[in-house]
Amino acid sequence: MVVWFVSIAGFTYTGSKITRQIKVRYMETVLRQNMAVFDDIGTGQLVAQLGADLNVIQEGLSQKLSITLGAVGTLVATYVVSFALYWKLTFILTWFSS
């Protein structure tokens, strides 16, 4: 449970840090644009789209990536344990399931 908590906290921290870096670079790039760009597109529209995109990125990095890596780790550990205990049965089941 402690490892799970550290994993979730680490991925959340990393996701927020990466999202913050993307936000800073995006704003630097937007501010370098020609002033005519802002005549066609409103500032609120740029900020709203940025916020929505960054929320999706942070959710993907923080939650979904940690769940995916945990599931892959569980799958690998399951195969290791099953090959260690019942290698013949595991080999047969692996061979016929694919």
The H-and-E topology, N to C, reads as: HHHH
Largest sheet: none
Number of strands: 0
**Alpha-beta content class:** mainly alpha
Envelope shape? elongated
Radius of gyration: 22 Å
Say what oligomer this is: single chain
> How many separate helices?
4
Mean pLDDT: 84
Total number of distinct structural domains: 1
Low-confidence runs: none
What share of residues is helical? over 70%
- Strand percentage lies at under 5%
N-to-C span: 33 Å
Describe the structure.
The chain is mostly helical. It has one domain (2-72). Helix content is 90%, strand content 0%. It has helices at residues 2-31, 37-40, 43-85, 87-97. Helix 1 packs antiparallel against helix 3. The longest helix has 43 residues, at 43-85. It starts with a helix and ends with a helix. The mean pLDDT is 84.
Write a short abstract of this structure.
The protein has 98 residues and is mostly helical. The protein contains four helices and no strands.
